Amino acid sequence: MKITKKMIYNILFFAFIIFLFTPYGLSTRVKLTQGVTYVKSMLFSPSAKKVEDRILVTSFDTELTGIFNAKNINLKELNGKVIFINYWATWCPPCVAEMPSVQSLYNAYKDKIAFVFITSDATVKVNTFYKKYNYNLPTYNLTSAIAPEISTRSLPTTFVIDKKGKLVLKETGAANWNSSKVRQMLDDLLKE
């Protein structure tokens, strides 16, 4: 019997439901949720849109305040670069679950593409979290509106934008960002 993505999603869904009704404390549920999310993120890698299906981001005029390993910037300063934008929070179990793969991707591509990690968490909270897990991702707070094409209320959500300012990928939920599929996508975007 061949295992399909749908079967794996169903298994993960039912495991998540069981975890929700586990009669343990909140911290146990958080750990279990992180575990399920981690397994899902290792099994599935995001996919890029075809060149002809990409949409242009309407504006990059967005002010960002650097809160960790980053200086204040305007997103339009990154025009002409491949941009990886990740919305996350320290209190979000799926965000925490995908962070090791995000950090590995950042380590490999930080000199080639622009990474922008956006959170609404306070600087102290982010600093404590990053020091605990030895992360050094360039992290910002939004200080002005962002284009609707790259805005979200769901965490985690990741966007990848090509050098021409077109949206290549939008992924909501945890993913394996350090997969060979994602690396190939980034390598291809760098060649465009």
User: Can you tell me the residue ranges where pLDDT is under 50 for at least 5 consecutive residues?
Assistant: none
Number of beta strands: 8
**Which strand order does the major sheet show?**
1-8-7-4-5-6-2-3
Oligomer: single chain
- Helix vs. strand class: alpha+beta
> What is the fold named in CATH at topology level of the largest domain?
Glutaredoxin
Detailed description of the structure:
The protein has 192 residues and is α+β, with helices and mostly antiparallel strands. The chain folds into 2 domains: 5-43; 51-191, Glutaredoxin. The protein has 5 helices and 8 strands; from the N terminus they run H-H-E-E-E-E-H-E-H-E-E-E-H. It has helices at residues 5-20, 26-43, 93-109, 123-133, 180-191; strands spanning 55-56, 63-68, 73-74, 83-87, 114-118, 139-142, 157-161, 166-172. Strands 1-8-7-4-5-6-2-3 form an 8-stranded mixed sheet. Helix 1 (5-20) packs antiparallel against helix 2 (26-43) and helix 2 (26-43) crosses helix 3. The protein is globular, with a radius of gyration of 17 Å.
